[in-house]
Amino acid sequence: MGVIEQPARIARPEPIIAPDLCDGCGLCVKACPTGALALAGSLAVVTHPAACNYSGYCERICPRQALTRPFQIVVAPNIDRRIE
Ligand code: SF4
Asked: How far away, in angstroms, is 65 Cα from ligand 1 center?
């Protein structure tokens, strides 16, 4: 059987909050199941990026579309899928 190489582990991106759109309503902070977000004055910030599990609750609940989760496409290296 061929060897399947695993792609190198890449750090997960974190949610991006647009400061010009966020009004500090706090809905995303309340919706986050892992406590990754907090309010800093009138702006939401990702205070614990390692806690973020990318659930997407924050993105869906934001009434101003201020919060987005970037995704990264990783192209696998040549994978030998032959069955011997
Ligand atoms: S839900 Fe949206 S507008 Fe409200 S604090 Fe979070 S990012 Fe800002």
From this structure: 8
Q: Give the CATH class of 1-84.
A: alpha beta
Write 71-75 long-range contacts (CB < 8 A, 24+). Answer: 71/13, 72/10, 72/13, 74/7, 74/10
Q: Token pair for residue 65?
A: 């579309």
Q: What's the gap in Å between 44 CA and the centre of ligand 1?
A: 6
Q: What is the pTM of this model?
A: 0.78
Residue nearest to atom 2 of ligand 1 (CA): 62
The full set of domain ranges for the chain reads 1-84
Distance 25 CA to ligand 1 centre (A): 5
**pLDDT tens profile 55-82:** 999 999 999 999 999 988 878 777 666 6
